[in-house]
Write a structure and sequence with these properties.
14 helices; globular; single chain; 350 residues; alpha+beta; 5-stranded mixed beta sheet
C-alpha cells in the first residue's frame, strides 16, 4: 500500500472503508491491504512487549483478554500517549501471566496492602478492597512498570473473580466494551463507538462500578458524548438501525465488529488435559449477554455466570435455556468423573 493511499484511508471511518470496498475489485483489494496494515495487533502490542507474538501465545494458553483504552485505540486507529495496557485474566492464571510480564523487563509496583514480591502477592487472589479501580467481578489488580526511551510504560493485570467478560460488561459505558483475544478482536458497539462517538452509560446485573465518574470524564475528554439515557426517538428505531441494540447479544453477532487477527507464529492453546480436544477459538467467542434498557435505570448488561468442576473456565451467558441445558449436562459429567476417581482411583483416571 502506497503512502498516499494509507494517508487517505487513515482519515476514513471504518464504515466508509467497508462501503468503499464494495464499489469495485480494485477498491476492495486496496482496502484489504490497508486493513491488514492498520489493524496489525502485533505492531500495537510491540509498544509494550518486545515479543508481541509471545504475549499472544500466552493469551492463547490462558484465555487472557486485552481491553480498556488499548482495545479502543486499536479499533479507532487512534493513539493516547498516556494510556496503559489493561490485561484481563482468569484467576487461576494470574501468576503465570504476571511472571511472563516480569520476564519482559517490567517491575512489579505493589499497591497498598500487597506484598512487594509479585510471586507472593499473586498467592492472594482477593485484593480488590482499596484499589484504584473497584469494578464488579474484579478480585485483584497488579501493576507493572518498565522504563523505555519513550517514557515509562504501565501494564495492569486485572484478575477476574470468575470471567474477564464479567468485568468488561461491568465497565462504565459502552465505548470501552471492546476486547482483543489471541485470535480475534471484538467491538461490541461499533456504530455508536466508532461512527457516532457516543457512549451509553451502563451497569451490569452483577453490580454497579464504584469508581465510574473518573472513566466518564476521561472518555468525554477523548471526544465521546456520554449518554445517561437515550432519546425516545431512538427507543422506537427498528433493530437493524439501533446503535445500541437491545435484547440478546453474542460475541461476533451482526451488531458487533470482529477482526480476525494474523496468527503467524502464535502457538495454539494446549488441551486442558490429555483427554480433551485442542481449543480452536478463545472461550470468549461463546459469550452471550442481553442489553436491557428502561427509563429509570438506563442500560443494564444482563447475564449470569456458568461454571462446572469439569470445565476449565467460567462463561458469561444470558440465555437461560442454554444455561439450564449445560448445567444438567455437566452435572451428569461431574458425577461421572467423581465415580471414576472413587472407583478406578485417581492415578488410573489421570
Amino acid at each position: 500500500m502506497d503512502d498516499v493511499g494509507t494517508l487517505v484511508f487513515s482519515h476514513i471511518s471504518a464504515k466508509a472503508l467497508l462501503l468503499l470496498s464494495r464499489t469495485c475489485r480494485d477498491a476492495r483489494d486496496a482496502v484489504c491491504r490497508y486493513i491488514k496494515q492498520a489493524y496489525d495487533v502485533n505492531a500495537s502490542l510491540a509498544r509494550f512487549f518486545p515479543d508481541p507474538v509471545g504475549f499472544r501465545s500466552l493469551q492463547a494458553r490462558t484465555a487472557t483478554l486485552v481491553s480498556g483504552s488499548f482495545a479502543l485505540q486499536f479499533f479507532d486507529r487512534t493513539f493516547y500517549p498516556s494510556s496503559d495496557l489493561d490485561i484481563y485474566v482468569h484467576s487461576q492464571h494470574r501468576r503465570e501471566v504476571g511472571m511472563w510480564i516480569l520476564s519482559m523487563g517490567y517491575t512489579f509496583s505493589a499497591s497498598k496492602g500487597q506484598d512487594p514480591r509479585f510471586d507472593i502477592a499473586a498467592m492472594n487472589p482477593l485484593q480488590s478492597k482499596g484499589l484504584h479501580y473497584v469494578m464488579p467481578g474484579v478480585s485483584a489488580i497488579f501493576t507493572f512498570h518498565r522504563k523505555t526511551d519513550a517514557g515509562r510504560l504501565k501494564v495492569q493485570i486485572i484478575v477476574a473473580r470468575r470471567s474477564p467478560m464479567e468485568v468488561v460488561l461491568g465497565f462504565h459505558s459502552t465505548c470501552v466494551m471492546n476486547v482483543i483475544a489471541y485470535d480475534t478482536a471484538y467491538c461490541l458497539f461499533p456504530r455508536a463507538t466508532l461512527e457516532e462517538r457516543r457512549s451509553l452509560l451502563s451497569w451490569s446485573s452483577q453490580g454497579r462500578s464504584k469508581r465510574r465518574a473518573e472513566g466518564l470524564v476521561k472518555y468525554a475528554a477523548r471526544g465521546f458524548r456520554m449518554l445517561e439515557f437515550l432519546d425516545d426517538s431512538e427507543l422506537w428505531q427498528s433493530e437493524p438501525n439501533r446503535s445500541f441494540p437491545f435484547g440478546p447479544r453474542w460475541m461476533g453477532d451482526p451488531s458487533s465488529w470482529s477482526i480476525s487477527l494474523d496468527m503467524k507464529g502464535v502457538t495454539a492453546p494446549p488441551p486442558a488435559n490429555p483427554y480433551s480436544s485442542v481449543r480452536t477459538r478463545d472461550p470468549v467467542a461463546v459469550t452471550n449477554f442481553s442489553l436491557r434498557y428502561n427509563r429509570s435505570d438506563g442500560a443494564i448488561m444482563d447475564f449470569t455466570l456458568f461454571s462446572s468442576p469439569v470445565v476449565q473456565f467460567s462463561y458469561v451467558m444470558s440465555n437461560t435455556d442454554l444455561v439450564d441445558y449445560l448445567t444438567n449436562v455437566f452435572q451428569t459429567k461431574t458425577r461421572g468423573e467423581i465415580y471414576k476417581v472413587t472407583i478406578c482411583g485417581l492415578e488410573d483416571w489421570q
